[in-house]
C-alpha cells in the first residue's frame, strides 16, 4: 500500500507457498494464494564501499561548482512551476506483468490516437483471473465451461475467489471436482494477486467489472468482460462464442479502451479548526502551506472507476460542502450531495442526476450536484489534470458521508478533506468491436438512448406552399 497505509495481514491457517506456473498437463493441488509482499525500491548510490566519493564524482563536483548560479535559477523555477498539467497524467502502458499497448511507429506522433490503441503481449499470458457474479445460479454453468476451457485446453493457471468455488452446487458437482482442485483461490483483503495476473475475465454485469477494478490499486491487467448480468453497459462480449473471443485476445492486436480512474485520498484532521479555515478563505484561495503540507493523516487511498459520491447521509439537513479546484474555492454545494465521476461513471449515477454522458476516451472529470437547492447549479466538466478537494463548509450543520464506487462508505467530519485527481493507472477494457461502436451500442441496447416511435411519412408529399388552406 502507498502513503504508509497499513497493509492487512493474512489470516492464520493460509498456505505459505505461492502458486507456481503449471507446465504441461500435470495435475495441480488446490492452493491458497499467500499475500505477496511488495519489494521496496532501493536506490543505487554512486559511492564506494567505504562511503567515500569516487574520483569521477570529485571531478564532476569541481566542474559543477562553476554553475551554481545557473542551478539555483533552475531550482527557483522548479519551485514556481505547476506540479501537474491540465491534460492529466500520462497513463501507464503496461498492464500487469506481461500486457502492454502496441507502440506506434517512430514516425507517428507520440500522442497516440485512442482508436489505434491495440493490445499486445510481451510474453504469452499464463495467469488468468476469473471473476463471476456471486449469488447468481445462472452463472454456474458459464463459470464451469470457462474454467474447464482455460485449464484443459489452454493449459493456464486460473485464479478464482475462494467463495466462488465454495458454492454448494459446485462442491456437489463431481464432474467439476478435477478442475476445482487445479484452481488457485484467493480471498479479498487478505491475498495480494495484483503482481501475478496477466488477464482478467469477468462473468456478470457492470458491478462485477467495478469489483475487479477495486482488486488492483496499481497497474490493472487487461479486462475481458462477458455480458451475463442485468445491465451490461461495460460488458461488450457475448458468452455464446467465448472460446473464439478468448483465442483472439490471446493472439494479441485486440482493440482496447483505457478507462480512466480517479485517485482519491481521504485526509483526516487536515485543518485543526474550521474557524481558522473560514478566516483563510476571504480571497477564495487556500494558503500554499495547506496544499502541500498535509497536516492530517491519510486514512484511505483508492483507485475509483465510476464515481466518488459525497452526500448528507442519514441527516435531514442539507449537505453543505465546499468544492476546491487546485486550491481555489469554486463553489459551495447545498443539496443532497455531489458526484465526482470519470467519463466511464458519467453513464451511471451522474446520468441519473442529470449529467451529460461522456465517451471514456475524453480526458475529463465530471462534477454533478445531487438535487441542489439552486436553480442554476448545472453539472460541469473540468480538465482531467486538476485536483479537486471537497471539505465540509465551516457553517455546515451536519457531517457528510462519502462512498467510492458504492463501497467503503465512511463519515466526513469538520477538518477532513477528500482529494480527487485522475489516476495514472487506467483500466484497460478489451473491446468487442471498437471503442466507438461498443459505446454507442451500449447506449442503444442498455440505456435505450434516444429511442422514440418514429414519425410516419405522408402518403402524398407536396410542397409546403401548396398545403395552405
From TrEMBL:
Q: Which InterPro entries match?
A: ATP-NAD_kinase_N, ATP-NAD_kinase_PpnK-typ_C, NAD/diacylglycerol_kinase_sf, NADK
Pfam families recorded: NAD_kinase, NAD_kinase_C
Q: Where is the composition biased (Basic and acidic residues)?
A: 1-24, 34-44
Q: Which GO terms describe its biological process?
A: NAD+ metabolic process; NADP+ biosynthetic process
The EC number(s) attached to this protein equal 2.7.1.23
- Enzyme class, one word? transferase
Which Gene Ontology molecular-function terms are recorded? NAD+ kinase activity
Q: Which UniProt keywords apply?
A: Kinase, NAD, NADP, Transferase
Annotated region Disordered: the residues are 1-72
| HAMAP family (UniProt xref) | NAD_kinase
Q: Name the family.
A: Belongs to the NAD kinase family.
Indicate what this protein is called per its UniProt record.
NAD(+) kinase
